[in-house]
Amino acid sequence: MRAHAGARLVVGLMAVLLLPLALARPAAAAGLPATHLEFGVSSEPTQLTWMVSSGVSWKYRYTYLSAGVNTGAGWETWNSPAGAYATLYMNASDAQGYIPVFPYYEICQSGPARCPADERAGDYSNLNNSSTMNAYYANFKLLMQKAGAFGKLVVVHVEPDLWGYMEQTAGTGDASTVSASVGGSGFGDVAGIPNTVQGFAWALLHLRDLYAPNAALAIHASPWAAGPDIAGSTDASLDVAGLADKTAAFLNSAGITWNPYGSTWDVVFNDVDDHDAGWWEAQGADNPWFTHWWDPTNTTFPNFTRYLAWVSELHARTGRQQVAWQVPVGNQYFLTENNTCGHYQDNVAQYFLAHTDALYATGLAAVLFGAGNGCQTTNYDERNDGITNNNGVPTTDLAGSCNACNTHASASSDDDGGFLRTFVGAYYAAISTGRAAASQSSPAPPGTRWAGQSTPTGPSPRVPRISVTGPPALYVTESALSPEDAQALRRRIVFVVRPAGGLA
Description:
By secondary structure, the chain is an alpha/beta fold. Helices cover 32% and strands 11% of the residues.
């Protein structure tokens, strides 16, 4: 049950109470359906047909709401009247039995900062710009009003990466030590709320309470936020529990533990990567200190055991369900995956689907697959190249522990060879019949790992850096674009993308 505390406590009392509350396990919040691990995919409006025709009992579909709150090209403009894009997406999802999920990615792309090279500095600058934040709260209020009118469960995943950047900005402090324009923004619904990142979180939760109590709000835990990136570091000595505890403490201080203005966060999302590991390798991004390949035998690092230990600790310390989001789609099963554009290998989806019980045991309620950038493997035929099997030749990738391991011929035009539709489908079919899910071939033992040229200087970004170049050049319907191009254009704000079917 969500708390509805009406009294506003004085700042001094907040400071006294915050530390012990941040260290305690927060009370449970309203959460997501979770009798077993659920799955979802990135799904632009034009991709709904693929989901339905896949024959898979997907639980979730997600699409970004982005493009900036004060650019004149944001999600609220993609259909008419303002905000109709979200309404259309929610209704279309619900009609097919899917729960809609909106990653709300707006701080970075808003003016005046507009996603500079130093994204952390840009986010902080925008958070402290009263004009920007006035527009931000108005934009979030509009989304909450649309969600409230929808009336059913919708998940809003608030600002991937932002919380990790603010955790780093806080250093040894908590969310109350980092400034942000909240009450000072002049937006009426958040008047009097402290001008801090903690207050920013409280304000968003308060807006949910006012306009969309049916919406589940998710905060984001980045695997690099507390220092070393547990998703990429090869260091076997990382204190994974300690790193998870630090991130949990910050998130708890940002509205998980308490909120004197209303409810608390319902769910904690995390991200694995925004590219397939094979793509990163092709860019020369891996080296002896950092790699995007996880060891499927859990012998060397990074690996799946470490990731799941991190998730489990986050779950224990926050008391919230966890969701793995934007999980790479590449696999090492089908011949289709030959490490070319749209067909890059990765092993996360394969491992996750072979270890669903282990994932669920850590507190993960759902896994949401999706490519975070262009040229990555997708679950549909984004490359428009039909059925491909690399002329029957397996593709060796020793850095990815694959010695000619992807030997299965595909009969699907999906760019992943049909891996997700096959094995997620088998998972749900097994649940419905009480049988064991279809098995996959085990990955080959680890091979020689590639050595890079330099020591990493910081975390690999999990959300693409965006350049905002100006107002939209033209208007175009999604039916004129490939689904991935539509998503990419939406993020870059070169076009304003409207769903197929025209204006509402």
